[in-house]
Amino acid sequence: MTDSPVPQTTEPSTAQLERRILDAIRRGASMADIAALRHHTEIQTPAGAIEALKDGNARFFSGKSGRPELDVNERRAQIMGQTPYAAILACSDSRVPVELVFDVGLGDLFVVRVAGNVVGESELGTLEYAIEHLDVHLVMVMGHESCGAVAAALLPPEQLAQEPANLQAIIQRISPSLEGLPRIRDKKARMREAVLNNVRHQVHALRRESVIQAAEGRGQIQVIGGYYEIGSGAVDFLIDDADLQP
Length: 246
Description:
This protein is an alpha/beta fold. The chain has 12 helices and 5 strands.
């Protein structure tokens, strides 16, 4: 006689979640009840978060974005709290709308934006908040095609000296990643390599911090990189150690 197989639990689909929330609304559920329902069905692993981002970007890239919006009750329920599944450190470039690129709705991503997607005190503190208080399962550093901040870091020192002091401070956080950049004749290819080097550099800067090290060590999060092509809309994911090696 064999033991009966143990039922496997899986996360509900978006359609199932929507039905559950609608049923709760019809029963007269409070905003707190709806917020709790949403929280308990969120993505719970780094791998799940990566797949969700890949799926969303595939929809955006192919022109099939769903732009999942919340109805009025779900939107009001978010007053009770937020449950993003990933935190993304991205550039402030106006051509890089993070939520659109990953085809997500309100409350799905915790986004930090700064020129050159650099890791400074404010950015690090913000990401630490997402890890310690919002229980995100993924941290991504996302660079992009034709990044102006990275291009500025490639300028001669005499030109950089003409920039405002605070902008120079941002550029100085990029410059170390460009040391030893191979001489590539194709300007577009050289810029891509420079942006990727900066992404890898910022990922390693994050991984040196104690809060992030501890969260990775206990399996709560994974820190990865990404490169967004403005022209195509596609995001290249840098996940493995080989991809992230400077």
